[in-house]
Amino acid sequence: MGKQKILIIDDEEMILSMLKTCLQAEDFLVYTADSAKKALELLSAAPDLILLDINMPGMDGLEFCRHVREHISCPILFLTARVTERDVVTGLTAGGDDYITKPFRM
């Protein structure tokens, strides 16, 4: 069996870089996208997990999740600065499987 694949979608380059470095060190194959548009192109890699920011220009993470949820079955974890209970419910209702707030620890 090959490496587990993770797709990280966030418009903050520093977060993409840090997560990619840490997860590759744990032997994951990591794909990164700084927009939902680029992430849609990377779905052909068939990720095993998606880490998804909500606040992004263009299509936000909630819209992305709703758009792809019926076509993919892998877990989607929101990784976002939105921290209210309402935000969590909105994320999970949109099709997310879990919700991690920023700042976070690896």
Q: What is the secondary structure topology, with strand pairs?
A:
Blueprint: E1 5-9, H1 13-25, E2 29-33, H2 36-42, E3 49-52, H3 61-69, E4 76-80, H4 85-93, E5 98-101
Parallel strand pairs: 1-2, 1-3, 3-4, 4-5
What are its keywords?
106 residues, alpha/beta, five-stranded parallel sheet, 36% helix, globular
What is the compact description of this entry?
Helix content is 36%, strand content 22%.
Please outline the major beta sheet: 5 strands, parallel
Low-confidence stretches: none
How many individual helices?
4
Radius of gyration, in angstroms, nearest whole number: 13 Å
Q: What is the arithmetic mean of pLDDT?
A: 94
Number of strands: 5
- Strand fraction band? 15-25%
Net shape: globular
The level of helicity is: 25-40%
Strand arrangement, largest sheet? 2-1-3-4-5
Structural class of the secondary structure composition? Answer: alpha/beta
Oligomeric state of this protein: single chain
Helices and strands, in N-to-C order? EHEHEHEHE
N-to-C terminal Cα separation, in Å?
A: 25 Å
